[in-house]
Design brief:
The complex is a heterodimer. By secondary structure, chain A is of the alpha+beta class. Chain A contains 9 helices and 20 strands. Helix content of chain A is 22%, strand content 33%. By secondary structure, chain B is mainly alpha-helical. The longest helix of chain B is centred in the first third of the chain and has 35 residues. Chain B starts with 14 loop residues before the first helix and ends with a helix. The radius of gyration of chain B is 27 Å and the shape is flat. The chains are: A alpha+beta, B mainly alpha. The structure holds adenosine-5'-diphosphate and magnesium ion.
């Protein structure tokens, strides 16, 4: 047993340096460079199969990296066995020991490190996850949500430098999931340990994490605070995977005063140059559906200074909170518009000729070579593209 | 199960039709059979399985006329109070128990190790081993017994306890491997990974997670090996030399007439096995309740 003493208080940054994992010829994790600050709630977000679990398993020591290194603070842990690392994991399937009761499951890590007096810490930990009454039950007798909390308690009690959570809420129903998100966030704030939370649920990542890294095909596409990556997506994948986006490919016709002017489909669009992710002349103009206003063409009002497009409403669905429109442009593209139900005057109807417009500061520009469907919800994509074969990046 | 729908298709649906009518006696009878068919089948199957055992137990209380214990004569506890009247019976039981005990330990130990190797490691010859391990189960016992005898004779090995033991370990191993392998294959590897993640080194992981989870499989493999060894006749008959095991004794006695003591020993074995199962169930239930 390498670690006999828990180091408390002194939590360290986690560094991944050129971390790569290949299975045969398939690269699951591709030269990941990442620093996860001590004490942060870090979310690794990406579609299923993008290499999230593999990354976590390498950090835990359950998978050998093909290349690269893992450091905790100054210490290189790449070659250490899993039981020698100050890291604990909440497994995707919980992996609770079925032959041990809840108390012994939680006490497991302490006992293996030769700690004699486990009663108090285990009871405190069960209290923290509100399972004190369940101490003598077997895992099979608990509900999914309770098992999930046991898995968290079993890992947390060891006060690791880093807690790895692999889609810990994936098996729970929606209501319980929301509840557990708040719960986990509370626990993390309370204990101050670095949480690396893996999920494919963008809403979960954004509500819980301080920092979100969006992963795709074994690489980090973009990393930042939830607000930052939502408002300033740098790739089509991020623009589509986090929320939804309207994307219009175009050409740069001018750059002046910090504003880039782009022409697409005989219309011109303005984007703050700081929000354009490329220096090239081919740029995709993007805007989030909730940033767009839609007005009947004959009552459009003053649109000066805004980015403007014309179209016909082909779909309108009222959701109470907002109305979601599809507006078909002259060249056949369907734009999404989410409109808050502010006043009955604003409502446009199916078949109306409309003008959609948005403030240029809400535009973002992506590299013109992007696959516009990258990261899109596959079902949504199938809906939008009709019979065309779906091309998903 | 839904109620019978006899006359629904004819007329358009009218709820009143379905309230008033009572099904006839035949329909009710059929329905009763349909609802209880599984119970009836179970009772018949159990009857079929337990009838021979019941006969064995009943005739252990018989006082046979003459040598053959096949016709009921009169109730008696003679056989039960005087099991070892013919000392060779008890000697043969002793021999069988010894062989079964030692063979079980060796076969369970080796078989468990083989299962771990086959499930956990990729090595050259693994597929071949997987196949070969099945051979003793698939080969007719007569063939096994005869070829083992030929082997022992060629080697000049003296027939007796040792040769019987070797033969029993050989065929028991296959069953142990199959049983333990099934249990191991069903063991989620993430449990062991979780243990490693929670500061258990390889040895502690085996001791506190792997072994407790595989143990039920190992125990049932052991019990299976024990009963296979205890009642083996064919292979033993080739390789026993002059040593007489219980099945061989029964076979020999059958020529002259089987004494009711054999029924007593048979009954004891049956109730012994039953007791083990019942105790295991009770202990299991108590542990779950705790
Ligand atoms: N042990 C393995 N052998 C071969 N391929 C694997 C193995 N583990 C994962 N992969 C592959 O690596 C890719 C990434 O897997 P994973 O990290 O589990 O993705 P995620 O957790 O993001 O869904 C997948 O394509 C998966 O099929
Ligand atoms: Mg995964």
């Amino acid at each position: 047993m390498a670690r006999t003493q828990v180091v408390t208080g002194q939590v360290e940054d986690l560094h991944l340096v050129g971390l790569t994992k290949r299975f045969g010829t398939m690269t699951a994790v591709d030269a990941l460079d990442l620093t996860i600050p001590a004490g942060s709630f870090f979310a690794l977000l990406g579609p299923s199969g993008c290499g999230k679990t593999t990354t976590l398993r390498m950090v835990a020591g359950l998978e050998d990296p093909t290349e690269g290194a893992i450091l905790i603070g100054e210490q290189d842990v790449t070659q250490l066995r899993p039981y020698q690392r100050p890291v604990n994991t909440v497994f995707q399937s919980y992996a609770l020991f079925p032959h041990l009761d809840i108390f012994e499951n939680v006490a497991f890590g302490l006992r293996r490190r030769g700690i004699k007096d486990v009663k108090k810490p285990v009871e405190d930990m069960l209290e923290l996850v509100e399972l004190g009454a369940m101490a003598r039950r077997k895992p099979g007798q608990l509900s999914g949500g309770q098992q999930q909390r046991v898995a968290v308690a079993r890992a947390l009690i060891n006060q690791p430098d880093v807690l790895l959570l692999d889609e810990p809420l994936g098996a729970l129903d929606l209501k319980l999931r929301r509840q557990m998100q708040i719960e986990l966030k509370r626990i993390q704030t309370e204990v101050g340990i670095t949480f690396v939370h893996v999920t494919h649920d963008q809403e979960e990542a954004m509500t819980m994490a301080d920092t979100v890294a969006v992963m795709n095909n074994g690489r980090i596409e973009q990393m930042g605070s939830p607000v930052d990556i939502y408002e300033n997506p740098r790739t089509a994948f991020v623009a589509n995977f986090l929320g939804q986006s309207n994307l219009l490919p175009g050409q740069v016709v001018g750059r002046e005063d910090g504003v880039t002017v782009i022409s697409a489909h005989n219309a011109t669009f303005r984007i703050p140059t700081a929000r354009v992710a490329t220096d090239g002349d081919s740029v995709v103009v993007g805007v989030r559906p909730e940033k767009v206003t839609v007005r009947a063409k004959d009552r459009a009002g003053d649109l000066s200074g805004r980015n403007v497009l014309e179209g016909v409403v082909t779909d309108a669905s009222f959701t109470g909170l907002s109305t979601q429109y599809l507006v078909r442009t002259a060249w056949g593209q369907e734009l999404q518009v989410f409109s808050q139900n502010l006043s009955a005057d604003d409502i446009v109807r199916l078949g109306d000729d409309v003008v959609v417009s948005w403030d240029p500061i809400h535009s973002f520009g992506l590299d013109g070579a992007s696959d516009l469907h990258a990261g899109m919800d596959k079902e949504l994509l199938a809906l939008q593209s009709g019979d065309e074969p779906a091309q998903v990046g | 199960m839904s109620t019978p729908t006899v006359d629904r298709a004819v007329a358009p649906f009218d709820p009143r039709d379905h309230v008033a009518k009572k099904p006839g006696a035949v329909v009710r009878g059929l329905r009763w059979v349909r609802e209880h068919i599984i119970g009836i089948a179970a009772v018949l199957a159990l009857f079929y399985l337990f009838l021979p055992i019941a006969i064995v137990v009943i005739f252990s209380f018989n006082k046979p006329v003459g040598r053959q214990n096949v016709a009921w004569n009169e109730f008696s506890l003679d056989a039960w109070t005087n099991i070892c009247r013919d000392p060779t019976i008890c000697e043969s039981v002793g021999v069988s128990l010894q062989i079964a005990f030692v063979a079980t330990i060796i076969a369970t130990l080796l078989g468990t190790l083989i299962s771990f190797a086959l499930v956990r490691h990729r090595f050259r010859g693994r597929t071949a081993t997987n196949l070969l391990i099945f051979l003793p189960m698939a080969t007719p016992e007569v063939v096994l017994g005869a070829s083992l005898l030929a082997l022992f004779l060629n080697l000049g090995a003296p027939l007796g306890f040792g040769t019987i033991l070797i033969a029993h370990v050989m065929f028991c191993i296959s069953f142990v491997v199959v049983t333990v392998k099934a249990r191991l294959a069903g063991l989620d590897p993430r449990l062991e990974q979780a243990a490693m993640d929670l500061y258990a080194d390889e040895r502690s992981t085996f001791r506190y997670v792997t072994l407790p989870l595989v143990l039920p499989g190992i125990i049932s493999a052991g019990l299976l090996a024990f009963s296979l060894s205890f009642d083996d006749f064919i292979i033993t008959n080739f390789n026993n030399g002059t040593l007489v095991t219980f099945p061989l004794y029964v076979w020999g006695a059958a020529q002259r007439g089987i004494p009711p003591q054999v029924n007593v020993i048979g009954s004891l074995m049956f109730f012994g096995a039953l007791a083990i199962v019942v105790i295991a169930q009770i202990v299991g239930a108590a542990r779950r309740k705790k």
